[in-house]
Write a structure and sequence with these properties.
single chain; alpha+beta; Glutamine Phosphoribosylpyrophosphate, subunit 1, domain 1; 8-stranded mixed β-sheet; 4-stranded antiparallel β-sheet; binds aspartic acid
Length: 318
């Protein structure tokens, strides 16, 4: 009898806990970046196009969260929108390396069990974020590069395109004018928290214009350009070598969680430390309550945020 009562109490406790967990997580939120940089000398129409692109991605991701979808689905869907928009340095808009080839990087990570997937140096994958998600969910590994990654894409039925799909006269011009920081295209990233409190972060990029062949930046590196852990998620943009060397995304979450400071304070500290060593950098961060930080040390960062309190922001300049 005692055992039955104990079982019933345990059952009731579990039920309530589950209900509480659900009830407590009405803080759904999504934050997006479309790259940190200068954005000066850009025609007004392009600035408008970037803002519209952010808005499209924001709404698609938010709708998924609102319909009780997972943050993994929201991040993937939002990043796909940005990858298909040639105004961003990811997917279709990827910049060229020094050999006038486009090599794309992407990663995704979710907080629940630190599951993660990443691809680096892919040349034929239309939406690298989808392949990163496939790696996370369907392989025992975290990261694939080049031909191996494209084989996995084939196995997974993930859309491959001819390299000519990524061709862009504008980006070839950018390669020629690489000294000018004026008209830099932006990497994209999304962090979202869903109804179950799970945070997912994702990042996708063509990397840095004129990078050497085979160079891999921070965007596909878990802990550097992308990180998600219970209570904190980050996606970064900027000079990838510094993000890798200082493990920037994880560093921000570690400071937030271990020093009991807000994500805004943690991100501001790290980004200003990067400024002091001449590293261009920007990050978007979410905490476990859906509060965001959008911090950068460049003149501008394309960014957007939306949450269940009705807050909505779409901005480029400071
Ligand atoms: N972080 C990216 C890289 O280094 C570039 C960027 O965000 O602009 O590949």
């Amino acid at each position: 009898m005692r055992a039955i009562i104990k079982y019933l109490i345990g059952f009731i406790f579990l039920c309530c806990f589950e209900l509480n967990a659900k009830e407590n997580n009405d803080n759904i939120a999504i934050v997006i970046h479309g790259g940190a940089g200068w954005f000066s000398g850009m025609p007004e129409s392009e600035i408008e196009g970037i803002k519209n692109g952010l808005k499209d991605a924001l709404y698609v991701g938010y709708k998924i969260l609102e319909n009780n979808g997972s943050s993994v689905s929201a991040v993937e869907a939002s990043i796909r929108i940005l990858e298909d928009n040639s105004l961003f340095n990811a997917g279709k808009g990827a910049v060229y390396n020094a050999d006038a080839i486009q090599e794309l990087d992407a990663s995704i990570m979710q907080s629940k069990d630190h599951n993660a997937g990443a691809v680096a140096g892919v040349r034929k994958v239309k939406n690298p974020i989808t392949l990163a998600k496939y790696v996370m969910e369907n392989t025992p590994h975290v990261m694939f590069s080049g031909d191996g990654a494209e084989l996995i894409a084939k196995d997974g039925g993930i859309e491959l395109v001819d390299e000519s799909y990524f061709h862009s006269e504008k980006n070839l011009k950018r390669l020629e004018n690489v000294q000018s920081k004026q008209n830099k295209l932006g990497t994209v990233g999304v962090v979202a928290i869903d109804i179950n409190g799970i945070i997912t972060a994702g990042t996708s990029t063509g990397g840095m214009t004129n990078k050497l062949k085979g160079r891999i930046g921070d965007s596909p590196i878990i802990g550097a350009g992308t990180w998600a852990t219970p209570g904190c998620g980050v996606s970064g943009t900027g000079h990838g070598e510094f993000f890798i060397r200082y493990n920037v995304a994880k560093e921000i979450c570690s400071r937030h969680l271990n020093r009991n400071i807000s994500v805004l304070e943690a991100a501001s500290n790290v980004i200003s430390e990067l400024k002091s060593i001449d590293a261009d950098a920007g990050v978007i961060v979410l905490d476990g309550s859906g509060n965001s930080a959008m911090v950068f040390n460049t003149p501008a960062m394309a960014r957007a945020y939306k949450n269940s309190n009705g807050d909505e922001i779409i901005l480029i300049y400071k």
